[in-house]
């Protein structure tokens, strides 16, 4: 209870400061969102560089149709085999269908989108892959008020399951949402479970987390504060797990299983992920869109893990929808 009051107090303080330094709750406050996202990208990269011991490269780019971004990339690091933390702020005409999936009436409008998106693939098979993104959209058309919404979330994809890791990740996800109402975390957890699901395999991508989209209820200030809380909790959710698992000894068997399971990650991103589809449909920068792909992946025909093995336990005990906390 004390922890919940503390979290609510922190968010209330953030809202007060936000009201002082920004304009009214309207899409014109997008400059404040952009400033926050750029700062978030740098804070996350700094935390990850401290763990890996190797610097992320910087690739700044421009989009001919409007806007651009900054991709922070690491490949063949000490901990990360590949990882990307990208910021983008792009705009264009004719909002792609993937961005208006739940609001078909917005298709074809002028649009502006900004966000931070990351995927990290550690080399050690005992260290899980992780994804996080927070984003902001504006859709506009002449003669009508612009329509805005936030989206985002984070989810964990282990190759070898540890219940303590899953519980920690879900606990921090819940902490990020506590101040916004007791009903928010259960709803966003279920949304994550339902979204990160490979329908053609009939299995979850990982152990879940939280996911939300089309968020504009409660006004701009509340929605922006929620987005900030999700982004600000990422390092706390993931880095302790990474530090615990990155140096565990492993062999060819574990490495082989990791590359096999990475295939599921690729399948989801290329078939179902709305962010990937939006980037490709909107003529986005392919290198930055596909920086989420793992560097080494394998597929096998109709393979099943040995009964009773750690690999089988991933399927039976972790790749299921369950309450972790």
Automatic annotation (TrEMBL):
UniProt pathway: Porphyrin-containing compound metabolism; protoporphyrin-IX biosynthesis; protoporphyrinogen-IX from coproporphyrinogen-III (O2 route): step 1/1
Catalytic class of the enzyme: oxidoreductase
Q: Which cofactors does this gene product need?
A: a divalent metal cation
Please name the GO terms of the biological process aspect recorded for this protein, alphabetically: protoporphyrinogen IX biosynthetic process
Gene Ontology cellular-component terms for this entry are: cytoplasm
> Keywords assigned by UniProt?
Cytoplasm, Heme biosynthesis, Metal-binding, Oxidoreductase, Porphyrin biosynthesis
Signal peptide location in the record?
none
**Residues that, per the record, bind substrate:** 117, 133-135, 283-285
Q: Which GO terms describe its molecular function?
A: coproporphyrinogen oxidase activity; metal ion binding; protein homodimerization activity
Active site, renumbered: 131 (proton donor)
Q: Does the keyword Chaperone apply?
A: no
- Primary role: Involved in the heme biosynthesis. Catalyzes the aerobic oxidative decarboxylation of propionate groups of rings A and B of coproporphyrinogen-III to yield the vinyl groups in protoporphyrinogen-IX.
- What does the sequence similarity comment in the record state about its family? Belongs to the aerobic coproporphyrinogen-III oxidase family.
* PANTHER family, A to Z: COPROPORPHYRINOGEN III OXIDASE, MITOCHONDRIAL, OXYGEN-DEPENDENT COPROPORPHYRINOGEN-III OXIDASE, MITOCHONDRIAL
How does this chain assemble?
A: Homodimer.
This chain belongs to which protein, by name?
Oxygen-dependent coproporphyrinogen-III oxidase
């Amino acid at each position: 209870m004390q922890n919940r009051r503390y979290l609510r107090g922190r968010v209330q303080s953030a809202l007060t400061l936000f009201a002082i330094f920004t304009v009214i709750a309207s899409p014109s406050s997008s400059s404040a969102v952009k400033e926050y996202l750029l700062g978030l990208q740098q804070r996350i990269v700094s935390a990850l560089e401290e763990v890996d011991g190797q610097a992320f490269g910087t690739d700044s780019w421009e989009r001919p149709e409007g806007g651009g971004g900054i991709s922070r990339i690491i490949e063949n690091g000490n901990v990360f085999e590949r990882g990307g933390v990208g910021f983008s702020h792009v705009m264009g005409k004719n909002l792609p269908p993937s961005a208006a999936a739940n609001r078909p009436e917005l298709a074809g409008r002028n649009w502006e989108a900004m966000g931070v998106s990351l995927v990290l693939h550690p080399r050690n098979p005992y260290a899980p892959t992780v994804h996080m993104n927070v984003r902001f959209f504006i859709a506009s058309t002449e003669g009508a008020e612009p329509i805005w919404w936030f989206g985002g979330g984070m989810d964990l994809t282990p190759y070898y399951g540890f219940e303590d890791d899953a519980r920690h990740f879900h606990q921090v996800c819940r902490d990020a949402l506590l101040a916004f109402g007791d009903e928010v975390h259960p709803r966003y957890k279920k949304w994550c479970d339902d979204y990160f699901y490979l329908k053609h395999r009939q299995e979850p991508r990982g152990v879940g987390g939280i996911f939300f989209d089309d968020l504009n209820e409660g006004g701009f200030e509340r929605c922006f504060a929620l987005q900030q809380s999700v982004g600000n909790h990422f390092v706390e959710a993931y880095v302790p797990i990474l530090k615990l698992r990155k140096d565990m000894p492993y062999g060819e068997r574990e490495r082989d299983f990791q590359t096999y399971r990475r295939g599921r990650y690729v399948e989801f991103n290329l078939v179902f992920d709305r962010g990937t589809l939006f980037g490709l449909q909107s003529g986005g920068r392919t290198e930055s869109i596909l920086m989420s792909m793992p560097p080494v992946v394998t597929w096998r025909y109709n393979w099943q893990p040995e009964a009773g093995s750690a690999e089988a336990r991933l399927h039976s005990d972790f790749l299921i929808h369950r309450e972790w906390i």
